[in-house]
Amino acid sequence: MNRRTFLRNVSVASSALPIVSPALAAMSSPAKKLGVALVGLGRYAEYMAYQMKECQYCEFRGLVTGTPSKAESWSKEYNIPEKNRYNYQNFDQIKDNPDVDIVYVILPNAMHKEFTIRAAKAKKHVIVEKPMALNPAECVEMMNACRENGVQLAVGYRLHFEPYNLEMKRLGQEKVFGPVRIVETSLGYFSGQAGEWRLNKKLAGGGPLMNLGVYCIQAGRYITGEDPMAVTAQFGPVLRKALFSEVEESITWQMQFPSGAICTSTTTCAAGIDRLYASAEKGHFELSPAISYGPFKGRSTNGEMDFPQINQQAAQMDAISKLLLDNQPIPDHIGGLEGWKDMKVIEAVYKAARTQTKVSITY
Amino acid sequence: MNRRTFLRNVSVASSALPIVSPALAAMSSPAKKLGVALVGLGRYAEYMAYQMKECQYCEFRGLVTGTPSKAESWSKEYNIPEKNRYNYQNFDQIKDNPDVDIVYVILPNAMHKEFTIRAAKAKKHVIVEKPMALNPAECVEMMNACRENGVQLAVGYRLHFEPYNLEMKRLGQEKVFGPVRIVETSLGYFSGQAGEWRLNKKLAGGGPLMNLGVYCIQAGRYITGEDPMAVTAQFGPVLRKALFSEVEESITWQMQFPSGAICTSTTTCAAGIDRLYASAEKGHFELSPAISYGPFKGRSTNGEMDFPQINQQAAQMDAISKLLLDNQPIPDHIGGLEGWKDMKVIEAVYKAARTQTKVSITY
């Protein structure tokens, strides 16, 4: 499949979400851009703001931070007027700010629920970074708040806009090599620094499973097009006991799907790993790197894959913004329901590891 | 590492076993070749006989089969004289046959023990195909029989003579990228035909774990240089219930090593999969294909691997024959002890899957 075929098929694979590459988008010039406020100015927010410079349907216009010095320096760099700067206390006043259409929550996991609900009450559409929250119940509260306030909710699932992953999804769901039997997908980075919120159980809700493993759960689900019905799981060894006293350093788990497919995964802070492999009855397809920010490499039984390496963040933000501009609903596979399902799986994986039993999942 | 460096290092990596590539071997001409009798003339024996044509230190000289028509056709093709043909009843007379130095047992797993012991009593050195037997106790009996009869015992671990796998072993055991944290290795083929002995519990002892999974156990062990201390495991779904009524169709398992490394694996008859990946603290290294008969492809954090694609069977047979010719002991990593350890792991994996508990292994 070449670039041309890809562009023709991608609207099918991504359920009619437009992929806006900078080159394509430059050909049109949308009249209106939506304004985005970033809540939380950590490392990923920094990357997001930078990548959004290439967006055609939205722009970075507001910020919310608890650190005045950050408000200052970011505002200079991105030309954010004083009236579009908030802290965690006065954030609710964003309701009266017509510059901001979308609030993007990129806070520690434990704060996702509160700020999603406050944004919804301020009548702003919400994008919340993955994992959606700490547990499925929080996800339900968040979805309810958005529905009740007439705003839309999306989860920051950037890979649903990434050509190599969309191709993996297509090969799996369209059964190009027959039914998928085995998915192997793992993600890890050698990481962990004293004081980091990701090592704090109360703020993060868990270790790498919350942060990285959720991508593997996603991949298993979008390749099979199914939701796992049962999981088994095993905590890995704790090599750095002082750092990983509250959350796991490594975890392995296995998901069983209704079709009989299985997906095995590892996520870890003890080593780097970034891969996605699927074996179907008549062939296989794989990415490595698969989940990071690329550049991706992919191949299948039919040969090497050749897709454009895109700006994932800009593609995600443009696709969501275009839907909102067109008054279209956010599709389920990047919406709250998807985030809730992933949280159901994460909850089951932790329970399976803790109890050393197979845990069934009902949705 | 290029071919030259490889050839310099390979003797270290393989514990001083000589790798004899046809090109190299052609330069010398050993005075004596050992005679090999193949016991069981199934598909792998067929391949082995063919590949052995390139051996420099041994040759195919005798056969043992229960099927007279096979004895006839094979003898024609390989010029095996009548006096070197046996059936399962008169096999013990091989004791008096000076043409045969090595008996290679390539029978269904359930017959490995009996024919290894009978060969040992006939004072022939024995090579037994993997998995060594049905359980660890049988392995001990086999080792005892060989010791008592003053003959040597090797297991047909062909990958210990294969350059790409030896490089994986070197990168892992020499900690080239720091300590290994994660190994992922899986092997599967879409396979299973009614009547096949591999689907018969009594003859095979188990399903793909016995036949294919043993390679993954080996890989986890030779990359870490350690023996797993505990395993967890999960039977996969049974997609073809009629075929897989006695043995598993798929199984996933996880091995924990004393250093804290983990190895996750899948083996299956439901789809093709053939890969070996290791992640260490400072880099990764992988093969895909990894375990089959090649051609192998490998890469690491340092780039693509480039080694000769060799005749694995000839390399294995020549290396073992050279040791026997030189009156050197078969090293542990291809000997009975290695086969016994793998059977200990296999036994623990089945127990873990059956009982859904973590199973410790003591050696």
Mind explaining what this structure looks like?
The first copy, chain A, is an alpha/beta fold and 363 residues long. The first copy, chain A, folds into two domains: 156 residues, 3-Layer(aba) Sandwich (Rossmann fold); 175 residues, Dihydrodipicolinate Reductase, domain 2. Helices cover 35% and strands 21% of the residues of chain A. Chain A contains eleven helices and 15 strands. In chain A, strand 2, helix 4 and strand 3 form a beta-alpha-beta unit. Chain A starts with a helix and ends with a strand. The N terminus of chain A is likely disordered.
Q: What are the low-pLDDT stretches of chain A, counting only 5+ consecutive residues below 50?
A: 1-24
- Please tell me how large the radius of gyration of chain A is: 20 Å
- Number of strand elements of chain A: 15
Helical coverage of chain A, percent range? 25-40%
Strand content of chain A: 15-25%
Elements of chain A, N to C (H/E): HHEHEHEEHEHEHEHHEEEEEEEHHE
CATH class of the largest domain in chain A: Alpha Beta
Q: Strand order, biggest sheet of chain A?
A: 14-13-12-11-7-10-9-8-15
Number of helices of chain A: 11
* CATH evolutionary superfamily of the largest domain in chain A: Dihydrodipicolinate Reductase, domain 2
Oligomer: homodimer
Give the second-level CATH assignment, the architecture of the largest domain in chain A. 2-Layer Sandwich
- State the largest interface: A-B, 37 and 37 residues
- Please give the largest β-sheet of chain A: 9 strands, mixed
Question: Which structural class matches the secondary elements of chain A?
Answer: alpha/beta
